Amino acid sequence: MKIIMLGAPGAGKGTQAKMIAEKYGIPHVSTGDIFRANIKNGTELGMEAKKYMDQGLLVPDELTVKILLDRVAQEDCKNGYVLDGFPRTIPQAQVLDKALAELGEKIDYAINVDVPDENIIKRMSGRRACLSCGATYHIEHIPPRQEGVCDNCGQPLVLRDDDKPETVQNRLKVYHDQTQPLIEFYTAKGVLRTVDGTADMKDVFEAIVSILN
Ligand code: ADP
Ligand code: AMP
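That is the input. Now the predicted structure with adenosine monophosphate docked in place:
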């Protein structure tokens, strides 16, 4: 099964994608996580991506598409995957479509996690991320067992640089300008399904499972 998670930054795509990946035994592929891992390891790609990420801008398509296509060509993606944070532009979606079509494959579902802008800033300022294993928490809604420490790997949790309110405003604008048109794109392909992302995370997951089943 090949699934795309759509939604504004902070809508809960990553939270749900991890649960889907676990339940269906497919990899969770997050371009944001790949960029953050590269930043942490000081690679050339990481340094290039950081310039854009810190401003709340999208990393250029040429760079992002290559990374994603390399990732989904790996063996563990053979039986499907859940994409989180990709595609974010129409050209990215077109490249993915073309690459899949060449293999006789297609996206099965694009799940749109719908959360209004008013809720987003609050979500993002409360998000805490583990840069080591990619886990995410929320200081109020989804707290770790011990404050500031990742449940999975014991590493410290951080407020991402791009989750500061001034950057979140930019990311929301970029989302509406460049990513939201994908809702139309996947509706036209008949694979778009929308869930109410303001519900409790377990209820959001239940709604997604009933779509995927
Ligand atoms: P995205 O991947 O779309 O950017 P995340 O999955 O990281 O978003 O979620 C953003 C923040 O909101 C995180 O702090 C996460 O713990 C929290 N969150 C996710 N889903 C919910 C929910 N249904 N209700 C409340 N908070 C949530
Ligand atoms: P995320 O972790 O999905 O919120 O992504 C964090 C940041 O990484 C985004 O704000 C972008 O700067 C960059 N990024 C992640 N995925 C993409 C993508 N598909 N296209 C362009 N930039 C991306």
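The first strand starts at residue 2 and ends at 6.
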